[in-house]
Automatic annotation (TrEMBL):
Its main location: membrane. It comes from Nonomuraea guangzhouensis. This is Magnesium-transporting ATPase, P-type 1. Mediates magnesium influx to the cytosol. It comes from the Bacteria.
Length: 889
């Protein structure tokens, strides 16, 4: 028996297998608990000793971030070479290179660590709650606050929050495939069903991380956090996420740079060795070229963008569980969403009860209150948990007048609601001994089990559906002598009436749908509600449903035909969780990026199947765990803000990539050519690294940049072919002006090595930094597209620093020499001509590039720009689920 006793004496925990093999009463006794749980003081003391009920928390660890910065093979090789040069008699160069490397690593570290802190702050805002008995009363408690001895209520769709020894169950089944590999749910009991300890664990214990698939139950917590079965496995294996499309693009882009750098580096090294230059100088120069061509601070730029974007989205009530999900939001082209709380207010209120003849009456209301799954406090009679319809029924003013009559009944057995039957049933006994079965649920399901339905009742139901109201049907059957209740008993029922609820359309839903349409996102509704109700709500919001598919239609259609119907259908009604997932997968198979917004247990499969799973903070635990993005309010307008932010981040990231690769390639190509023509190195290794550091520092302001409307009105994708073509087209243009500078320095200023290097350093830094203003937009810069003020100041500031460096006291140590005034006049002329030529080349490139579909500003672009202007900044690259749907699904 594994029992651990903590210092206070009563803070103990049990292994779930051992606890499941013991009688429930003995487990409660060993844990110092009872059927009504612990006291608040006991729970507080145990939490202080055993710690929070969490397997791991997202914490920003500076050592791990620093390790990732130092992982670059090029940086490591440069550091080794700098050490070697120190011992080979070049201490000054070694020191300068070392300082530059430290500064480069430091910049990347600071920005990535800030991004990690942003992710940590987001994780702290995401919480799961459960109903726990403390001080003799049930209440909602944050899952991380659970301790051994707590008594927890389990309901349909909840994730088991800790390892439990079950005390009572009602048709409880748990989905345990994540831990046991079993595909079918496991039925639970309160007594062992065999002598085998493992079998007892499966039947009498509920394991942390498993899902309540059917029924309900109560259990006592025996182990939390890393002591639970799931916790032990998770801590042993760690956590890995599949690579996302964004990360795949980064990886392919990096491989492109590795190949280009390898060719240039080896070529330059061979040339310098053949020209009999010192091997150490040739090696340092070649490695500096390799570092110079790679955008070293790309991870920092991405991290800064995603972190800033996540903070801005959090202020607008959008939480991303992993920062890379912001990028994924920008890719969305089709959004599948449920109806309740998204298109409607989600504040369900009880309107009226109608009897079997369609007249207002109290009897269906009383029967509906008897047949429910609400969790009530026995002391105060307050409802502390349950589904939205039951809560609306209990909290309605009409219920107060009926509650006194409920005292005549005693509930004997409950058959919980499930998504296949769509019914909940109870067996009750009246004070005179009469027993009655009451069933309540979806009207189609209840009426199908009734022996007869009056024409007036059917007409009343159709009228409520046509008005867009939510309706629950109630039916009964006398059950003299009955002691048990199963779904098979839900037959030959007598229709007793309807319960009508109001869930009005959300005030801002129409405008939100219009915004999503402007962003090129098609919205489709997946709901378990009646087809007529769903179509009415959509039509009221300007989302016409010319064709409505039902679950029966989906079931009867093969994948090929269903894929065709999905493209033409806006509303899918009365569909099961499996249907939702199938529809999402088929839509993804068409090549579109799909998001799914849902908050119920029946949405979990579809959330997993989508490219981006979106849920809300008030959702079931299963939905929140399956989602990539959480909305603090279930509002499509908030989601539209997230899409705009994602597209802005990608647009700004691509600005850095296109500009950095083209200008760096051009400069390094120029260096390779100069090595052949000159009798000295055109730039010292330390100067190349300093140039690269200053240039990249200015680009850290790119995440603040404005994005043009056409960059926001539709998704963008990584295209390595486009990047390669851009690099090969614009790089040589940059080299033309480098060679012009070489000629001017040699022919006009008759420069020796120090003056030549100073001139090229300043020209190189100015052209590659200022070109961002042309490359950042496909429009005319400054006139039709304005850069952000931080980017403008950063670029001008770095160019100014570079121009002044040769005249500072550091010039001699860096190998520079003051430049004549005429040079700066020449530099201004060269920069103006260079930017004009880049502008002309840009227009030709985008007009003829086969990989690029020309972006035309949509008619509504000014509206997108106006709304998007609220989001100026953009955040690290953490993963999400794979983009491609598995074959055969």
């Amino acid at each position: 028996m594994m029992v651990a006793t903590a210092p206070p004496g009563d803070a103990v925990w049990l292994d779930v297998a051992d606890a499941a093999a013991l009688p429930a009463e003995e487990v409660l006794a060993r844990l110092g608990s009872g059927h009504t749980g612990l006291t608040t003081a006991q729970a507080r003391d145990r939490l202080a000793v055993l710690g929070p009920n969490a397997v791991r928390s997202h914490r920003a660890r500076w050592l791990a971030v620093l390790g990732r910065q130092l992982r670059s093979p090029l940086l490591i090789l440069l550091a080794v070479t700098a050490v070697a040069s120190f011992f080979l008699g070049e201490p000054k160069d070694a020191l300068i290179i070392g300082v530059i490397l430290v500064a480069s690593v430091g910049l990347g570290f600071v920005n990535e660590f800030r991004a990690e802190k942003a992710a940590e702050a987001l994780q702290s805002q995401i919480e799961h709650r459960c109903v726990v008995w403390r001080d003799g009363h049930p209440g909602s408690v944050e899952v991380t606050g659970l301790v051994p001895g707590d008594v927890v209520e389990l309901r349909l769709g909840e994730i088991v929050p800790a390892d439990l020894r079950l005390i009572s169950v009602t048709d409880l089944e748990c989905e345990e495939s994540a831990l046991t590999g079993e595909s079918l749910p496991t039925a639970k009991a309160t007594k062992p069903t065999g002598a085998n300890t493992a079998l007892a664990e499966l039947t009498c214990g509920a394991l942390m991380g498993t899902v309540v698939r059917e029924g309900s139950g109560t259990g006592v917590v025996v182990a939390t956090g890393g002591r639970a079965a799931f916790g032990k496995i998770a801590l042993a294996l760690g956590e890995r996420h599949p690579e996302t499309e964004f990360q795949t693009g980064l990886r392919r882009f990096s491989m492109l740079l590795v190949r280009v750098a390898a060719v240039l580096t080896s070529t330059i090294f061979i040339i310098n060795v053949v020209l009999q230059r010192p091997v150490v100088d040739a090696l340092l120069f070649s490695l500096a070229i390799a570092v110079g061509i790679s955008p070293q601070l790309l991870p920092a730029v991405v991290s800064t963008s995603l972190a800033a974007g996540s903070r801005r989205l959090a202020r607008h009530k959008v939480l991303v569980k992993r920062l890379v999900c912001i990028e994924d939001l920008g890719d969305v082209e089709v959004l599948f969403t449920d109806k309740t709380g998204t298109l409607t207010e989600g504040r369900i209120s009880f309107m009226r009860a109608l009897d079997a003849a369609g007249h207002v009456g109290e009897e269906p209301l009383g029967l509906g209150l008897l047949c429910d799954e609400a969790i009530t406090d026995p002391g105060g009679g307050q409802v502390v948990g349950g589904n939205a319809l039951d809560l609306a029924l209990w909290n309605s003013p009409a219920a107060a007048t009926v509650r006194e009559q409920l005292g005549r009944y005693r509930r004997l057995v409950l058959v919980p609601f499930d998504h296949e039957r769509r019914i909940v049933s109870v067996l009750v006994e009246r004070d005179d001994g009469h027993r009655l079965i009451i069933s309540k649920g979806a009207p189609e399901a209840v009426l199908a089990r009734c022996a007869d339905v009056p024409a007036q009742g059917a007409a009343a139901l159709e009228a409520e559906f046509a008005a867009g109201n939510r309706v629950v049907a109630v039916a009964t059957r006398d059950a003299p002598g009955t002691t048990t209740l199963t779904p098979a008993d839900e037959r030959d029922l007598v229709f007793r009436g309807l319960l009508v609820f109001l869930d009005p359309s959300k005030a801002g839903a129409r405008e939100a749908l219009r915004r999503l349409a402007e962003l090129g996102i098609t919205v489709k509704v997946l709901t378990g509600d009646n087809p007529a109700v769903a179509a009415k709500v959509c039509a009221d919001l300007g989302l016409p449903a010319a064709q409505v598919l039902t679950g029966a239609d989906v079931e009867a259609t093969d994948d090929t035909r269903l894929a065709e119907l999905i493209d033409k259908t806006t509303v899918f009604a009365r569909i099961s969780p499996e249907h939702k997932a199938r529809i999402v997968r088929l839509q993804r198979r068409s090549g579109l990026d799909v998001a799914f917004l849902g908050d119920g247990v029946n949405d979990a499969i579809a959330l997993h199947a989508a490219d981006v799973g979106i849920s809300v903070d008030s959702a079931t635990d299963v939905a929140k765990d399956a989602a990539d993005v959480l909305l603090l309010e279930k509002d499509l307008a908030i989601l539209a803000d997230g899409v705009v932010q994602g597209r802005r981040i990608f647009a700004n990231t691509m600005k850095y990539v296109l500009m950095g690769t083209s200008s760096n390639f051009g400069n390094m190509f120029s260096a390779a050519g100069a090595s052949l023509l000159l009798g000295f190195l055109p730039m010292l290794p330390s100067q190349i690294l300093l140039n690269n550091l200053l240039y990249d520092t200015s680009q850290l302001a790119i995440p603040t940049d404005n994005a043009d409307p056409e960059q926001l009105f539709r998704p963008s994708r990584w295209d390595v072919r486009l990047i390669r073509r851009f690099m090969l087209f614009f790089g040589p243009i940059s080299s033309l002006f480098d060679f012009a500078t070489f000629a001017i320095m040699l022919q006009v200023f008759h420069a020796g090595p120090p003056l030549f290097r100073s001139g090229w350093f300043v020209e190189c830094l100015a052209t590659q930094t200022l070109v961002i203003f042309a490359i950042r937009t496909r429009r005319i810069p400054f006139f039709r597209s304005h850069p952000s003020l931080p980017l403008l100041l950063a670029a001008l500031g770095v160019v100014t620093v570079g121009a002044l460096l040769p005249s500072t006291p550091l010039a001699n140590a860096l190998g520079f020499q003051p430049l004549p005034g005429l040079f700066f006049l020449t530099l201004v002329t060269l920069v103006i001509i260079y930017l004009a030529l880049i502008e002309l080349g840009k227009r030709w490139f985008y007009r003829t590039a086969p990989e690029v579909a020309r972006h035309r500003e949509p008619p509504h672009a000014h509206r997108i720009h106006r709304r998007a202007s609220r989001f100026t900044v953009a955040s690290t690259s953490l993963p999400r689920k794979a983009k491609t749907a598995p074959a055969g699904q």
